[in-house]
Target: Succinylglutamate desuccinylase/aspartoacylase family protein
Amino acid sequence: MNTTTVISQENIVVGEVANGLPLTIPVYRLKGDGTGPSVYVQANMHGAEVQGNAVIYQLLEQLKQLKLKGDITLVPYANPIGCNQKSGEFTLGRFDPITGTNWNRMYHCNSKLASQFAEQYRDADEQALKSAFKTTLIEEVDQQLNGPAYRLTTGKRIALNLQKLAHQADIVLDLHTGPISSQHLYCPDYAKTSASYFNIPHVLFIPNDFDGAMDEASFCPWWQLTEALAQQGREFKVQVEAFTVELGSQEKIDLSAALDDAHSILSYLNHKQVFIEAAYQPKIMKRYGCNLNNYLAYYAPMGGMVEYIAPLGGHIKAGEPIAKVLRMERYLSEQPLQTLSLECDAIAILHFASASVNQGTELYKFFTNVFEL
Amino acid sequence: MNTTTVISQENIVVGEVANGLPLTIPVYRLKGDGTGPSVYVQANMHGAEVQGNAVIYQLLEQLKQLKLKGDITLVPYANPIGCNQKSGEFTLGRFDPITGTNWNRMYHCNSKLASQFAEQYRDADEQALKSAFKTTLIEEVDQQLNGPAYRLTTGKRIALNLQKLAHQADIVLDLHTGPISSQHLYCPDYAKTSASYFNIPHVLFIPNDFDGAMDEASFCPWWQLTEALAQQGREFKVQVEAFTVELGSQEKIDLSAALDDAHSILSYLNHKQVFIEAAYQPKIMKRYGCNLNNYLAYYAPMGGMVEYIAPLGGHIKAGEPIAKVLRMERYLSEQPLQTLSLECDAIAILHFASASVNQGTELYKFFTNVFEL
Amino acid sequence: MNTTTVISQENIVVGEVANGLPLTIPVYRLKGDGTGPSVYVQANMHGAEVQGNAVIYQLLEQLKQLKLKGDITLVPYANPIGCNQKSGEFTLGRFDPITGTNWNRMYHCNSKLASQFAEQYRDADEQALKSAFKTTLIEEVDQQLNGPAYRLTTGKRIALNLQKLAHQADIVLDLHTGPISSQHLYCPDYAKTSASYFNIPHVLFIPNDFDGAMDEASFCPWWQLTEALAQQGREFKVQVEAFTVELGSQEKIDLSAALDDAHSILSYLNHKQVFIEAAYQPKIMKRYGCNLNNYLAYYAPMGGMVEYIAPLGGHIKAGEPIAKVLRMERYLSEQPLQTLSLECDAIAILHFASASVNQGTELYKFFTNVFEL
Amino acid sequence: MNTTTVISQENIVVGEVANGLPLTIPVYRLKGDGTGPSVYVQANMHGAEVQGNAVIYQLLEQLKQLKLKGDITLVPYANPIGCNQKSGEFTLGRFDPITGTNWNRMYHCNSKLASQFAEQYRDADEQALKSAFKTTLIEEVDQQLNGPAYRLTTGKRIALNLQKLAHQADIVLDLHTGPISSQHLYCPDYAKTSASYFNIPHVLFIPNDFDGAMDEASFCPWWQLTEALAQQGREFKVQVEAFTVELGSQEKIDLSAALDDAHSILSYLNHKQVFIEAAYQPKIMKRYGCNLNNYLAYYAPMGGMVEYIAPLGGHIKAGEPIAKVLRMERYLSEQPLQTLSLECDAIAILHFASASVNQGTELYKFFTNVFEL
Model:
């Protein structure tokens, strides 16, 4: 095909381990003609959540056949420590093994920036404002990266290096998975209409609160800017859309599912006019929404061995069994097989990765107070 | 039901952790009328291999409705450290987290015992010989348990306590699982005919070598005794049968599969005349065998993210793809999707639990040079 | 001795692990005559920080010889999961191994309570107010403990059980250690004068911000109440004092140092009139203070193998070497031995427990802008 | 200095991790004039045992000022996985985190080789025999490294790459440390006289049994060859000396102690005539020996918190206290402070790295039946 887009690769250094070897991350870039929004996609920030790498593979296979309006940057293996942190057969890459800090809670957000900026750029036009704010966000990250080296934790340095790439884009997609999980999407409340362009049946709507994650770090400053300008009576659309795309279960590579996921993302990007003449369209499907404060974590009410019953993506009625807990040390002294249920209707989104649970282990997460999109 | 068999419970102490809390294991016992062989079943020696507990649950549910000839002892949660050793969401219970020693390689076997015994009991009749040897095996274990406390490692103490129970039985079943695995059975070579009474399609035949595992610790001394007596020209059947039953995948509880597995075990026990008038019969199915030295471990020839293709239990032809390895850091520099295959026909028995592998991680295990039973 | 105080023991259940065994914590109680403040002391919330158990041992040995005005409750082994969580030879007990959450960030604080209370008890006298607020704090905890079991994480359940005990006391001491550390004390700003009654040379003054720790959970509500009443123009002393006592290094038991630490605590308690006629007095020593916002974390500016040079408790001048980093993979290409220093004067309080560090590992913590108490 | 020896560096690739990054090890080489024995030194095969890297640093600093007869190869950071495997603050690098296999038990030894060789080279002179055997040992390793990639585990591949370097040398030193440990030396029985040229007070004499370690892998084949030739009546000195040098405690870098250790090694190498005119001489000191079968492991007879009393390197009398075990959960019910002792005289060589121990944790290792060298 004579219209293919060139892919270039850069390896960025985001740290160093104890024996001095550099931690590097591959960054793939495709150039657009500059007439569409730019896109940033990363995967595998949590070590066990590998399927996003396969999705980036399938995206590259598609993208190289397309003509692009906007630049696209794709980053697999975003966390070279998390990726390679084994403990037994599984990948222990959800948090820094030294400190316990979740790798996806270390991004940066200066919550004072938006209001200062709204004041300072009161008279700027939309394009100037957008451009200046983007520059400032990148400078903020650079300032930290270029400050005294002794001020940055391992995870912060990785996060800032990624965030610097993400701030250059208008659309940010952070590819994750749950433990054992159905597909779902974290979508900022203001971007509700975009949610229906992904082929993802379950959408979680999140508010303008920064809790350290990549998606929030990408959209919160812009959302705050919109709000600050609204207080001046000025309407200014949030300029950046950012999503956490939960692809399914961790510790799995499935190339065919990855192709479906790539199509889902391409459909959304097509809607955002990233491509010149591409055919990707969303599937017709029922999509269900839930607000973050109705996203229910169900912790094991007792220790034991769990058979998970509520099917992922399944609509559960109040009182229906969601799991059975086997407690063999009590075979004679009490009912050794306890049935758990929920007190309200819900959709089961994900469950714990192991059958062995302590009392208080997060067993399931449920959408409650569900609505149709 | 007026014919039910009484179940009794004892909790045995097998150690103490750092804050002084005792490590206890529940032991369930059912009495027979003394006319049949006695049975020992344990589960969950490896922390993540929990399905055996569900099988013991289903066994108890069945056994309490039967009349027994032989005594039956059932031990779920055989390893209270392994059971509760979490690292991230998964259970890190395959080895002692302090030393790395596999919990199922710490049983005891005195390889000199059999020949000494054959000499000493040259003139004893079969029954006396069996009874004396059994007593001696138990005494050997007791001697170690009652020796200076400072001589026993954590794992040895747990193993010896279990082994003491196992040596009292004529039939020993150690319930395990693979990582992601099809059902298979470790069967000592001399007990080939028994293998067909389990509903397990894949049987691994193992020689008379002690490598520290429960099944070997149970049958090796008896097999050695048979061999020592054979050198005297005396025929003496191996008096004990011991199997490692691999139930499927780790980290899973499936009560319905557990019922099937219980039926499989009950069918074997029925064949060994443990019950008075029970109906359990083996399923008619093709069973495939493989000798241990043909059990092929296939280690990842490169690091990467693996899509497992060879289906578990599936018969693979030489050269067919068994897995794909995604190597996204080389998307531009070489073929990023490598296909792996095997140089001979095989049955895929189990594969690694995670998609993330280092070069040299055990990817698959295969039966090769397979024969039908 | 005919004046000894009786010690009683209760074992409280704070959870259950996967094989159904209960997690229990021993609670020791001594009764006072009711005329003095009551005291709560706990140790070993972080698994590797064991020295507090030895301090509780030495406290009990002393206390049983004293007459008490106030009740004293002592809780060693406060975290039965953390205590027993090994990974290699060391204890991995700083965070929940499943989630990464720091065990000492899971206590409860309802920050709205104080202002509501100040309004509601506007006319109550000091004693009534104190008593009612204490009752309410305990009820808040009980409410959560008695709510739906599926709402509590493993760590929250442990924390709430301990917090319920702590809220009953007027003085709360949470015994911790650093990794490799000198003795230091976390002291709420309002309790400055109390700091000098401990034999601890380094004191960190912390503001009225709740970040999930036991000391904060104990004093923040009372401090908030004082502030809320101050806004009414009413003076109301903060009724509770709570400290995190950092005893030294983790993974060490030293009974003689524990006796010194016990004397330090007894000296403070004697000052607070917990005892009838006791002789414990603080040592005469220089004590240095530092405000929490001047507590400097120094992260490794490069990966490597570290020789720690700054002595713990030592006063470091700006520019002096604090550590050397060996980078053997660069022996020929650059200076393989890098010297690190600080840009300001400081006292070295603690350093990392291992010589192996990634870029960004917390290497040292320093008091800066130090003042004498 | 115009006489300095040139150091060259090569980075060898010994594997690949999951995100495809290569595992590399730096190899430093110095050339001799060919008239003396060649030397191989490696460090840090176990991740936490870092001090050997500092010793290699100090060796390089000395060696570059010397004239060498034999070639010297030095390999710091020998295990790039173990080096960087953190779990909490400590380095979990004693065993493969996936399998539990000790990294220093994966070397190769073909125990049939020596006797075949003795037969085949019956008529060869000493030099030819040595040279051919060395070539064969290297070829054996190469054969495995160049065989099907799917046959090698992660650890085997690392071990074989190092072993290939080691087999090229006449003297092999593997630098390790204990957990908390005094200096000691593993010395093959035939090299007894060499032991006194190291400045190491405690020497463990080991027999000709291969258990997978580097030192054994280096000397066992040669020792077996000597024995096989002795059976022909031919005297043939063991041509290779290999030692495991235990430098002290893990997780520590001490550059000044490293200089002492470098002098100790240089003194031995000087004795072996590796240098032209060097002044290194052993210190005059008492050296104590112990045979491996008298090296006593003392496992914790109960769970608890341990104060280690027996000083490392200290000569302990039978019955003297070696440790106290605090068991605070039994403060009222039994003696909470248990004293442990040994039933024979001994030298305490090392103890466990943590105060928290399960029943059965290896508490101490002792030399017993000690003799003076």
